[in-house]
Amino acid sequence: MTVKSEVEIPVTDPQPEVEGVLHRRARVIAVANQKGGVGKSTTAVNLGAALAESGQRVLVIDMDPQGNASTGLGIDHDHREITTYEVLTAGISAERAITETTVPGLSAIPSTIDLAGADIELVSQFSREMRLSKAIEPLLDQYDFILLDCPPSLGLLTVNALAASDELVVPIQCEYYALEGLGQLLRNVRLVQQSLNPQLRLSGIVLTMFDTRTKLSEQVVAEVRRFFGSRVYDAVIPRSVRLSEAPGYGQPITTYDGGSKGAKAYRKLASEVLHRPVIDEAVPDEELPAVIVPEPTPEESEPQRRRLFRRKEGTRK
Ligand SMILES: Nc1ncnc2c1ncn2[C@@H]1O[C@H](COP(=O)(O)OP(=O)(O)O)[C@@H](O)[C@H]1O
Ligand SMILES: [Mg+2]
């Protein structure tokens, strides 16, 4: 039986649209992959710097107790008085934790090793997964981008980042174990979507440390594109000594060596992040290969030409 409503419910336009005058709200992007050393911090710093260079107002929040993004942005320890730790655990306003960097338009909330305690301290606290999300709310209209540099784990810090984000960018290193653990990350993303943040989208995969001298790098690019299709950014970050040197000088690559290949790659990535529409599709749940096997030598037989060695990934957490 259907009941006809007696009352006429006025239909309100959910988004009073005035072209170009829409209120701008920061795009919050988590840079995550639970594997260490794949280029998360390098990407958070240099994507942030490249976006700032193109006139965007950018805030990088260091969510990793190792503080690599903070160091890469030239924030020395004397200038890390109020950090991500205090914001997450002591209810200090995020605004007070913001530190300017030497790059115009690029600010940061730094971290120190103290943040390592947050994972445990937050466990017993109310609404522990939503701490960051709540903390950055007042900042959303002050920035165009808020980038979250995640730690190499899927613990509470990463969950806080995913719960606070509109988008997820996953750096994948062009190496043999490129896809290892990615299935687990994507399962976590689906869980966060279901319970904490239905808004979260996997907006992009960025291939890092591409080595032009190895066939394997090319194979990783091809395989990752096969799996993730248009989610993979065209910009591929080359392996470059300049990129690895820059943090030692507390500078992003755009100022350390603005004409280098690494700087150009991150500018291209920034332009894609800015202009490419966010893919609004479910996170793929196909089983991913863990290993990308290098191309066989010519004398190897045809069946061995299979590029993939399918190995079951670790069991669900
Ligand atoms: N494209 C690159 N070329 C050369 N070295 C890189 C590149 N990207 C990152 N690195 C270096 O590799 C190491 C790990 O990178 P990092 O961004 O800290 O990874 P993660 O944050 O995922 O642990 C760092 O020493 C960094 O300087
Ligand atoms: Mg890092």
**Which radius of gyration do the C-alpha atoms yield?**
21 Å
Q: Count of helical segments? A: 12
Work out the number of β strands: 9
- What would you call the shape? globular
- Overall mean pLDDT stands at 87
SSE arrangement, N to C: EHEHHHEEHHEHEHEHHHHEE
Instruction: Give the % helix.
Output: 25-40%
Percent of sequence in beta strands: 5-15%
Strands side by side in the biggest sheet: 3-4-2-5-1-6-7
Secondary structure class reads: alpha/beta
Main sheet summary: 7 strands, mixed
Low-confidence stretches: 1-7, 9-21, 300-317
What is the rounded distance between the termini? 44 Å
What molecules are bound to this protein? adenosine-5'-diphosphate, magnesium ion
